[in-house]
Design goal:
alpha+beta; about 30% helix
Amino acid sequence: MHSFSFNRPTDVAAAIAAASATVTAQQGATVRYLAGGTTLVDLMKLGVERPETIVDVRGLGFDTIREDEDGGLEVGATVRNADLARNDIVGANYRALSEALMAGASPQLRNAATTAGNLLQRTRCVYFRDVASPCNKRLPGSGCPAIKGTNRTLAILGTSRSCIATHPSDMAVAMLAYEATVTVRGANNERRIPLMDFYRLPGDRPDIENVLQPGDLITSVKLPARPQGERAGYLKLRDRASYEFALASAAAAVVVKNGRIASARLALGGVGTRPWRVVGAEKALVGQAPGTELFRHAADVALARAEPQSENGFKIELARRCVIALLDRLTAAGEAQ
């Protein structure tokens, strides 16, 4: 493993100061924050990430979950995935999030992985993780062998000529459906970034995956209060029942009043280069009576711009069925969320 220095600051200001000297290197940033390490350590072992300095943020007090005065929920950046999934408030009020977390990884990894780390986890594209292969996400301009190579699990939405890698997070898909906001502290300010705006499309710089600046530290994620009567859930389709990434997934939150859909939020996973909110499909649902034909139309709208590669065209139909099945479940009579 590449040698690195280990920094354990005692306060947030010191952590940000230690990381603010970050510059982009060919294989990862020169400074990385560490919490659970379930992605970072793996990539360091593979040589994909080669930081010069690790800044340990586990002791900075970001490991709490609390209700806000407005009825929302503030989730600390270092809250473990298992603790978040099992939290009573999350289970009762944010069921899609709990389901997404429990569908992710393994019990051992959920016990270690953190909220911020989950949002920032990197693709499992085999070319990205193999330093012997070209990869524009790892080294811009080197090429994307996945486009003509092994791409069965990769993206069909948000792709570019430079990258078709899929974002792997389940949690982020559910948080996107809940319209979460990410709180970030930098060297000079604190800001709140809607999760919808947090991730970047790959374009010609797939190595830049989000809007964070050098030294920025995620401190929490805010989930807004739920509308009355909202039903929400998460459905994940994959090659095996556990410890597997999504081929297609969906998170949805809907309110049905007087026999019609009053509001709807829908996000897809496993098919996009980032967690994929489908606003057009949401608009197609609102004001309509729930039913399979309506859900099929919404799924068609959600996937209208899909661009499959040589091995993953099946994802269009798989994602379509995922959306329909989830919406059928959430609008079924007697379904409690």
